[in-house]
Amino acid sequence: MAALAGLAHQAKQLEKITAQLTDACQQDSPNIILIEPMKDTVNEIHHTVFETLNQATRSKREPSDAIKAVEEEVSGLLNKFTDGLSQDTFQNPQALRTMRKTLKELSAKAEEMQDEWAKLAKKAAKANGGSRPVAPNMAGGKSKGPKVEDKPMTIEDALSMLVDKRTTKWQGGLVGIVHAAGVQEMTPISAHTPGRFEFVFAPKSQAAWNLHTYATMV
């Protein structure tokens, strides 16, 4: 589908832009205070476009006219930003400020594009019967979903539901640890350095070891 190809192309463009901005940051440019925030914004836009691509793939629907229009605007802003990137730009604070304005517009349009695809995906789910209620309306009123007995759920009930075993009994104490620490650093593999790898990996590995060490004392 042409729409998916367009989104994939936008994602690749953003990857290249990220690499260029990363290189500029590593060269200790005097304008790094302007370049660093731009790199972070590009990472956020790349994440938005990637999520939009996933939504478009799952929806299996042709894009609406609204989606086509906003995708065209996103592509235009991306091309404008890419054309403005050069070594001279990184040395020119005024040019960087102008690029930052373009990036702000691009970010807003990328979010708008994601919203439009989300609307289309919701319509597709509704058409396929995926929006039928499966639980009572917690805000009040009548629900067409299955009847649920209104009674408190005990810890044993919750654990039984999770593991699908009615014999599960919680005996108290520590039963598990969720280690969700992490650092986001969306950098192409070709641009990674030992320092950047450690920056991303250390919060996971060191924290996991700390949890393992102290959990034995509980």
From TrEMBL:
Indicate the segments annotated as coiled coil, or none if absent.
96-123
Q: Which UniProt keywords apply?
A: Coiled coil
Instruction: Quote any Pfam family the record assigns.
Output: KR
The record's Gene3D superfamilies line, in alphabetical order, gives: NAD(P)-binding Rossmann-like Domain
Residue ranges, annotated region (Disordered):
126-152
Asked whether the UniProt record includes GTP-binding among its keywords, one would answer no
Cite the InterPro entries for this sequence. Answer: PKS_KR
Residue intervals of the Ketoreductase (KR) domain: 155-214
> Does this UniProt record's set of keywords contain Coiled coil?
yes
- Please report the name of this protein according to its UniProt entry: Ketoreductase (KR) domain-containing protein
Q: Which organism is it from?
A: Alexandrium monilatum
